Amino acid sequence: MRQPIIAANWKMHKLTAEATAFAESFLPLVQDSNAAEIVLAPPFTALATLGAALKGSAVQLAGQNVYPEEKGAFTAEISPQMLADLGCRYTIVGHSERRTLFAEQDDFIARKALALLDAGIRPIVCVGEHLEEREAGRIEEVVGGQLRGSLASIPTGKASELVVAYEPVWAIGTGKTATPEMAQEVHGFIRKELSERFGASAEEIRIQYGGSVKPENIADLMEQPDIDGALVGGASLDPTSFARVARLQRS
Ligand code: PGA
């Protein structure tokens, strides 16, 4: 049985005081819910503050990115060990904004995923096609290629610690969600790819859907057999709306 996992990707939003205020409103709304494991990924600058505010709760802290070296002359970068030091249990890698705006490639993402696992942090590895690729019938080629490239270095023994997030790029921040059936089709394909790569462990890997997830669509998405949670951007910035998503509830 895979435990659902709902993660907030705050992107470049919230100052420290806003992160604290979010935690104060959000925690009481989810404290009696065990519908899903809940993860918050604030900007690096709010990790320490938010981590302190989450102490004693079951809500986990996550980074939004990482550099795949332990230490060294890498100005402005953040290592897995630094994230672990602040209490991060998860970290997002390969988000489409990193791939598109910062030209991150699969081999770099693969190094990040492995470096995180080595530091005891679970990577949330993002994949997803652009609209033109979908329209050209290239979803499996694109998503399959990203998966093979981004997971190239992961040992089978650690596969169950992975989380994969399928985020069709055309659905991110646009209000256009894939229908649950469209999402399931790709999630099923991802599960098949993962089982070719990792064998039976693929059944333990959680696959999140991402792209305009909100309280109104989470329950229908979660009914699909291979959708194990969500990576949520816009709707995660408001404590009430993210609490509804994290409780897997429309209201
Ligand atoms: P969105 O973002 O929920 O605002 O579409 C999702 C994401 O980019 O992870």
Determine the number of helices (DSSP H or I, runs of at least 4 residues): 10
Q: How many strand elements? A: 8
- At the fold tier of CATH, the topology name is TIM Barrel
Share in β-strands: 15-25%
Describe the main β-sheet briefly: 8 strands, parallel, barrel
For CATH, the homologous superfamily is named as: Aldolase class I
The overall average pLDDT, rounded, is: 97
Any overview of this molecule?
This protein has one domain (5-246): Aldolase class I (TIM Barrel, Alpha-Beta Barrel), CATH 3.20.20.70. An 8-stranded parallel barrel has the order 1-2-3-4-5-6-7-8, surrounded by 6 helices. Helix 3 (80-85) links the parallel strand 3 and strand 4 (88-93). It is globular. The two termini are 26 Å apart. Helix 5 packs across helix 7 (139-150). With 251 residues, the protein is an alpha/beta fold. It has 10 helices and 8 strands. It has helices at 16-30, 47-54, 80-85, 96-101, 106-118, 131-135, 139-150, 180-198, 215-222, 239-246, and strands at 5-9, 37-41, 60-63, 88-93, 122-127, 163-166, 206-210, 229-232.
